[in-house]
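Q: What structure does this chain adopt?
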Amino acid sequence: MKGQRRRHEVGDVYVLQVADASYRFGRIVKVGESGSRGRFPGGILAYIYDVASDDLQCDLATLTVDRLLMPPFFTVNWPWQKGYFRTVAHEDLEPAHVLRQHCFYDASTEGYVNENDDILRERVGRRALTSPTAWNWQTGERLLALDDPEEWDAAFERGERSLGTAAIGLAFNCTLEEASPRIIRAMQLPDVAQRGFAFTAAGTAARRNGALTPELYAALRAEGPGRRSIAVNAIDDTLTFVPFRRLPTWLKWWSVVSTVRNKLDAWRLSFSYAVTDAWKAVRRR
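A:
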């Protein structure tokens, strides 16, 4: 989809296109800092629904909290700018549109908090989104809500298809220690698409935890950080969300190299545009 630059508002309904070329819809439920210590200051708290469509038109009445495809998540403007998400409608937010309680794992305390970083006494909604009988391993439906490592292990032993997709669910919903060994196993799957999803799961783990395990760092290094590497997006997420001091030496070095390369590319483009503009000005004389 075409990239979109806009000011996001609570109640905006957006669309994303999935692998089978159909569309799914989501809703923005909070924008900016949610409290004095907002979990993601300046970010966007959003939902994605298990509501499929062949076009960009959506029946807003179907976007209910009992039809969430995956847990609520925080994001930024980037998916809209790159064309992964596109806002297509707006509906004023009602209390019924929002979950009663949001719950996120906090790696720094090894506990659970809401979107304002208020500590929760216990995890909320572990089985609220789905149940094992609703996980569709053939199509990948609802696997982004998977929060049971043992279920993933059993599916691996059965040779199920959507293990990479399910690894993303584990990255969203489980601790880093639980998700890491499953993500690494998914990185070795023969299906290239599912291996790609496994590296997406590694990037998701970096976003959520601000860290990765030594085994995940080793797996990223084995694939290499080049622009054509299957690990490139996971490495970019790691460089963005993991503090520099926590990075292994090889990734610190790549951070410096990529920063210099991006700066040189920017200068090259600026010079190219300047030459083009000058040439056009000379031709108009």
